[in-house]
Amino acid sequence: MSTITKVIFVSFAAAALIGCGRGARDAECFDVAVVMDAGGLGDKGKNDMVWRGCQRFAEESGVAARVGSYEPVTEAEGRAYLREASDGGADVIIVAAPIWEDYVHGLAREYPRIVYVVVDGERGASNVKSLSFPAADAGYLMGVAAAAAVPAGNYAFLGGRKDASTEKLAGGYRKGIMSENPSSAVAVVYAGDDFAAPVARGRVRALAGELFDDGAAVIFAAAGVANADVAAVAKERDKLLIGYESNQNYLEPGYVITSLNIRWDNVVFEELRKTASGDFKGGEREISIASEHISYPIDDNNRSLIPAEAVRKIEAARQRLAAGTVE
Fold first, then answer.
1. In angstroms, what CA-CA distances link 12 with 9, 76, 120, 132, 254?
2. Domains defined for the chain, CATH in brackets
3. What is the CA radius of gyration of the chain?
4. What is the model's pTM?
5. Highest-scoring range by mean pLDDT, 27-31, 105-109, 180-184, 305-309
6. Which of 32, 73, 82, 210 is a good FRET partner for 182, with 20 to 30 A between their CA atoms?
């Protein structure tokens, strides 16, 4: 690896793997390819956070790096891009959607030299790192936040894609609400279970309207790029939202209680830095609920919605979760 002199960032929908010279693979260059989840760059959530971590690595690591993204619009297209990036000889392939996890493990056996990093994954291997967070615990915190901010009423969870992570998140959210308001109702709805579910913005918007009209005072939205639409509906209905995966408090100031901010950018940066320095270890890495990588931002956009007593309850819940005393 040589000292970095210039970094090229390329975002592309298909075509060749990006590179320092954007041509054939250069042995002196550390190649990082990112296969995005549905919604691609600009989703205001996980994709943007992962990309930010890759950018930070290229700018701060001292390694000559090529970083670029594939933005599939179908699940099959994502598999094709994973194959293309592997055939192209990337050093690391960041996989932003766990929907391809089984396929990635097959590729990992074919390409043992390549490191695969699956964001929000469940299982690792010798050259596969699965990055995850305690979704049930994090959902529990957001349930406590919702119930502390709106002490009486009903609540809802609106997921984009139904998968293992969002189901745990919804279950934890319900449990957190019930710990504060045992008599409340919590509706759980998903836009679908296919790859494109998070970009079904019209459907997500309609579901949000139905949930609010049916009596939900707060929706915890984990709907990818469509979270912006849920926020717009919350403002229209004069209701409240909890954002997901990045600080989304700004989407509709005064209508977003807080956001479950998963700092995938920092976690991806750390994994890339370790890999480039020869310190990669395959397997699973779960972010601790006590970690600074999991937070609920309070800023000028939401300060009036989350009073000191609500913060006290959330922090007390976090301590119980970290100690393993929440049943």
1. 10, 17, 23, 26, 36
2. 8-132+264-286 (3.40.50.2300), 135-261+297-323 (3.40.50.2300)
3. 20
4. 0.91
5. 105-109
6. 210
